[in-house]
Design a protein that fits this description.
The chain is of the alpha/beta class and about 240 residues long. It has helices at about 15-25, 70-90, 100-105, 180-185, 190-200, 205-230; strands at about 1-5, 25-30, 55-60, 95, 110-120, 125, 135-145, 150-155, 160-165, 170. The radius of gyration is 16 Å and the shape is globular.
Length: about 240
């Protein structure tokens, strides 16, 4: 079995989410969209692989908005087309943050700026804790999606929908892949800590909280992947 993780930039490790896929017997492959050299000018030409050739596809997070065609349009529209085709073909997909927004938009929802960002560890309200536990889950986003027509909203926070299911697709707003190692990679990107401080977040405190969450957050991520594979990816179409 093959699982493709779409990494939209150079600083988005898949953490315990990819670990759990490997433990479940998947050969984990990665496709990186934007190289480090193009990080600040991400509107590059990209040829996506045929997503229908994979058993699972996991579009990951990104530093940009899934609504921002002007900034990343040369690959945003092709990726929207690619995931739409994969969904129609019944390929299970797990979208994370930008990836969840991307799937929402591809399937008829919308994406835009949220009234205010969410950062750090937050509990979400879940209608199905066996699929999406309440957390806490790590949040780092300025945008939010609307749930696509025909989808079921599974979880939410006061600021944004947090999870939806449509067919074999599960879209998430939060980051189940985050560990202290992943957060260190994000903070290693130029300007990230300055952005956090500008939004009133203490980067050192955020990292300390992340280290304290490493073990329980990994268990929650494993449980989420298991539930996705057992309850969503196997749905009849």
């Amino acid at each position: 079995m093959r699982a493709l993780f779409i990494q939209h930039d150079h600083a988005s490790p898949a953490g315990p989410v990819a670990e759990r896929f490997a433990q479940r017997g998947y050969d984990v492959e990665y496709f990186q969209v934007v190289d480090e050299a193009d990080y600040h000018e991400p509107n590059v030409a990209v040829e996506f692989p045929d997503l229908t050739q994979y058993d699972v596809v996991v579009p990951m997070g990104a530093a940009w908005g899934a609504w921002d065609d002007e900034r990343i349009g040369r690959w945003l529209q092709p990726e929207l087309t690619a995931v739409r085709r994969a969904h129609a073909a019944g390929v299970p997909m797990l979208g994370i943050c930008f990836g969840g927004q991307l799937l929402a938009r591809a399937l008829g929802g919308s994406v835009g700026r949220a009234p205010s960002p969410e950062f750090g560890w937050h509990v979400v309200h879940s209608d199905d804790e066996k699929l999406v536990p309440e957390g806490p889950w790590f949040q780092w986003h300025y945008d939010r999606f609307t749930v696509p027509p025909g989808a079921t909203e599974i979880a939410r926070s006061p600021k944004a929908p947090q999870a939806f299911v449509l067919g074999r697709t599960l879209g998430l707003q939060f980051h189940p892949e985050v560990s202290s190692e992943v957060l260190e990679a994000w903070m290693g990107v130029h300007g990230s800590e300055k952005d956090l401080i500008g939004d009133g977040i203490d980067p050192e405190l955020l990292m300390a909280q992340c280290r304290a969450q490493d073990e329980p957050a990994t268990r929650r991520a494993y449980a989420l992947v298991d539930a996705f594979l057992d309850k969503v990816a196997t749905r009849d179409l």
